[in-house]
Amino acid sequence: MRRDFSVRSGEAELMDGLDTAYEVFRDCLTDLGRVNRLTLAHRPTIAYLETLRGIGAFDLDRPVEILDIGSGGGDLLRRISGWAARRGVPVALTGLDLSPWSARAASEAWRGGPEPRWVTGDVFDHPCAADVIVTSLVTHHLTDAEIVRLLARMDAEARVGWFVNDLHRHPLAFHGFRVLAAMMGWHPFVRHDGPVSIARAFTVEDWRRYRALAGLSPHEARIARRFPFRICVSREPK
Fold first, then answer.
1. DSSP, residue by residue, 12-78
2. Which CATH number applies to 15-235: 3.30.70.660, 3.40.50.150, 3.10.180.10, 2.60.40.3410?
3. Per-residue confidence at 88, pLDDT binned at 50, 70, 90?
4. Dihedral in degrees, nearest 10, Cα atoms 28, 29, 35, 40
5. Which residues neighbour 146 within 8 Å (Cβ) at sequence distance 6 or greater?
6. pLDDT tens across 161-216, in order?
7. Are 194 and 35 in contact (CB under 8 A)?
8. What is the pTM of this model?
9. What is the pLDDT of residues 204-214, one digit of tens each?
């Protein structure tokens, strides 16, 4: 069947199912961590934090509060913790995820440095105030209306800035991931959900539309493509 990449797919991802056993969920998160390392998934987020540090946005008299929305197995927060330790930036980290299994999996996988506070809950029902809010490879799970709502929510509650990192909807990324996942022998959920995630993902024009609907200007929220097949949206320091 010929796939239409001109619009977002509405296909469901297996990881979003509510009846997944913990062991299956944990093993899937472990392989997703491997995918993220191989595809340089967290590099744009770390670069954003480095930019904020460089302009003095973290020159506070207390630890910088960083919230990761959709923290999953905690691999982004592990990267942030390592970056902060190397740069001498005191941080207070929080991971928020809808899945009841995420906090357990993330805590079991945590190594080194003060462990984040893991919170289970819906981002739209939970307080999100923090200095910096980040979310990585999460927004493609949401509807268009939810994405607009999330942008407005982050902009209202982030004291310094926020950063969205997600996939670029592109046929080369879709078919390339299918081949790579099969070659690497990743978890069946990952082999299924990876291409679906890309089909559910975005173009730059999608993000321009969401930005406008959230009441943000191009000056306030910058959209940029990042290698490989990423589109990021960042709020400049307030």
1. PPGGG-TT--HHHHHHHHHHHHHHHHHTTTTHHHHHHHHHHHHTTTT--SSPEEEEEET-TTSHHHH
2. 3.40.50.150
3. very high
4. 170
5. 124
6. 999 999 999 999 999 999 999 999 998 999 999 999 999 999 999 999 999 999 99
7. yes
8. 0.95
9. 999 999 999 99
